[in-house]
Design a protein that fits this description.
This protein is 0% helix and 58% strand. The protein is mainly beta. The protein has one domain: Thrombin, subunit H (Beta Barrel). Strands 1-2-5-8-7-6 form a 6-stranded antiparallel β-barrel. The two termini are 21 Å apart.
Length: 112
């Protein structure tokens, strides 16, 4: 695994007595990972007259790590294989496949 990532979510809660909203950033995982694109080409999308490319990827983390929830934001902090991955952001789309696996592989949507 050649990348280092941080996976986090933003959780908001409202105090029932004071009605004050509190925002907390929850870090689910920080550590080594493997980031790879699922395909060789991005799919072109046309939404409301705007053209953009939609690309999917897989983020693999070691078995036994804390589960990263759906919709968590993953940021690539470092990479020994590809410096262009550093700073890349992705959102977890689903839970990883389970069973006898060698890594937890999360399908993610690349955001930037």
């Amino acid at each position: 695994m050649t990348e280092t990532i941080t996976a986090r979510s933003v959780v908001e809660s409202v105090d029932e007595v004071t009605l004050v909203t509190t925002t907390v950033v929850v870090t689910h995982y920080t550590g080594r990972a493997r980031f790879r694109f699922a395909g060789t080409a991005a799919a072109d999308r046309d939404a409301g007259g705007q053209q953009f490319a939609d690309s999917d990827a897989i983020v693999s983390v070691p078995v036994g790590t804390t589960r990263i929830p759906t919709d968590a934001l993953i940021v690539v902090d470092a990479s020994t294989a590809d410096s262009l991955l550093v700073g890349l952001e992705a959102r977890v789309k689903a839970v990883p496949a389970s069973g006898q696996v060698t890594a937890n592989r999360y399908p993610v949507e690349v955001l930037s």
